[in-house]
């Protein structure tokens, strides 16, 4: 083997070694770059995932706040509706109470009016007579009975406790005057009567004597 051939082999080995080193460096760079890309990509995905989770949490928080506000609004509306109902109920009770008081007062007034008495005013006592009216002072006649009823009504003395001292003309064709005595306490009254067609005798004045 010549020196020339030996040198040629040595150079080939040297070239192969350099080539292998270069290939190894390239592979190492590829691995490093790939690992870097993989690591960065995973970190980016994690960051994106965390960001999405944060947005979801924020959205959930907003929804919760919104629901809370809605619940508060509903509670306020229910409270206002309840208060309005209570006010209407109180107003209705007040009106019912006022109506009952008015009815009681009207009833009392009506009863007092029915009982009659010296205070007045008075209404006609009614009549069963028909046709043209003619005064009568005959005891037992319808006209006498109705005048007696009017005297009792105006004086407030029950008929069975009343004594008619005098009953006669009151100064006109449709007027009468009577003087009565209470058997219970001895009080005396003079009563003026006025006839009204279809309504009967109406007391117009009462004087205590």
What's the quick description here?
This protein is α+β, with helices and mostly antiparallel strands and 209 residues long. Helix content is 61%, strand content 16%. Strands 1-2-3-4 form a four-stranded antiparallel beta sheet, with helices on one face.
How much beta, percentage-wise? 15-25%
Uncertain regions spanning at least 5 consecutive residues: none
Radius of gyration based on Cα positions: 61 Å
Let me know the largest β-sheet.
4 strands, antiparallel
Give the overall silhouette. Answer: rod-shaped
Give the ordered list of helices and strands: HHEEEE
How much helical structure, as a percent, in the residues? 55-70%
- Label the structural class: alpha+beta
Could you walk me through the main structural features you see in this protein, from its secondary elements to its overall organization?
A hairpin with a 5-residue loop joins strand 1 and strand 2. The protein has 209 residues and is α+β, with helices and mostly antiparallel strands. The longest helix is centred in the first third of the chain and has 113 residues. It starts with a helix and ends with a strand. The protein has a four-stranded antiparallel sheet, with helices on one face.
């Amino acid at each position: 083997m010549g020196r020339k051939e030996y040198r040629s082999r040595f150079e080939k080995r040297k070239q192969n070694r350099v080539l292998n080193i270069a290939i190894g460096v390239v592979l190492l760079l590829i691995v490093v770059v790939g690992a870097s890309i993989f690591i960065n990509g995973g970190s980016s995905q994690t960051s994106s995932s965390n960001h999405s989770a944060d947005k979801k949490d924020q959205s959930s928080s907003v929804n919760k706040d919104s629901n809370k506000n809605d619940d508060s609004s509903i509670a306020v509306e229910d409270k206002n509706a309840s208060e309005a109902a209570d006010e209407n109920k109180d107003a209705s009770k007040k009106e019912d109470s006022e109506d009952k008081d008015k009815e009681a007062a009207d009833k009392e007034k009506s009863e007092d009016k029915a009982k009659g008495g010296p205070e007045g005013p008075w209404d006609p006592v009614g009549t069963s007579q028909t046709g043209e009216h003619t005064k009568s002072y005959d005891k037992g006649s319808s006209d006498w009975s109705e005048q007696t009823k009017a005297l009792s009504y105006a004086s407030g003395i029950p008929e069975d406790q009343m004594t008619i001292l005098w009953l006669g003309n009151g100064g006109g064709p449709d007027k009468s005057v009577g003087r009565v005595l209470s058997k219970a306490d001895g009080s005396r009254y003079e009563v003026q009567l006025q006839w009204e067609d279809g309504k009967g005798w109406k007391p117009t004045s009462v004087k205590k004597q």
